[in-house]
Amino acid sequence: MKKSEIRLKYKGLRKEFSEREIEEISLAIANNLLKLPIWQKTYFHIFLPITEHNEVNTEFILHLLSGKDKEIIISKSDFETRNMTHYLLTDNTKIKKNTYNIPEPVDGIEVPSIKIQVVFVPLLAFDKKGHRVGYGKGFYDKFLSKCRPQTIKIGLSFFEAEELIEDIFEGDVQLDYCVTPEKVYKF
Known about the structure:
Layout (H helix, E strand, L loop, with lengths): L2 H13 L3 H15 L9 E3 L13 H9 L3 E8 L4 E6 L6 E3 L5 E3 L12 E5 L2 E2 L5 E2 L5 H8 L5 E5 L20 E3 L4 E3 L1
Parallel strand pairs: 1-2, 1-6, 6-9, 9-10
Antiparallel strand pairs: 2-3, 4-5, 7-8, 10-11
Organism: Flavobacterium segetis
Family: Belongs to the 5-formyltetrahydrofolate cyclo-ligase family.
Protein name: 5-formyltetrahydrofolate cyclo-ligase
């Protein structure tokens, strides 16, 4: 399938979830993350979900990271340049939704991309080779290309893998893992 078809399919499937289902599935994803060999790392980048799009609720993962004393990094998006600026999440971080309903830090302590060791990547779908389909703006591909090659990229998905995404581009950054409520995919 092509990315445009996949986007349409998975946006539709997500809309069918109730708030309770999203909570349960998101908790299962967080529990499956514990199986990954990532917990010796220190700097973890995570996205804050757009609840209006029924994204994976990352609150459970935030609790895991916090309980393990990890440095948590969140981003702010610039829609003109398609760049993301990364900030350390602290008790004093003020979060505000932007015009696209993305919760973002207002300001804070900036963290360079090369310092980030693990990135939890939002997506709509992924395939068995570790390619993903997002919303199509290219923010994460641009960000991930600026990270160190050994940065671990982990997709979080409500759904299992598609067989193949047909229209992969040269700039698409492949995942190392994708975690679903049912299993962990390693690429």
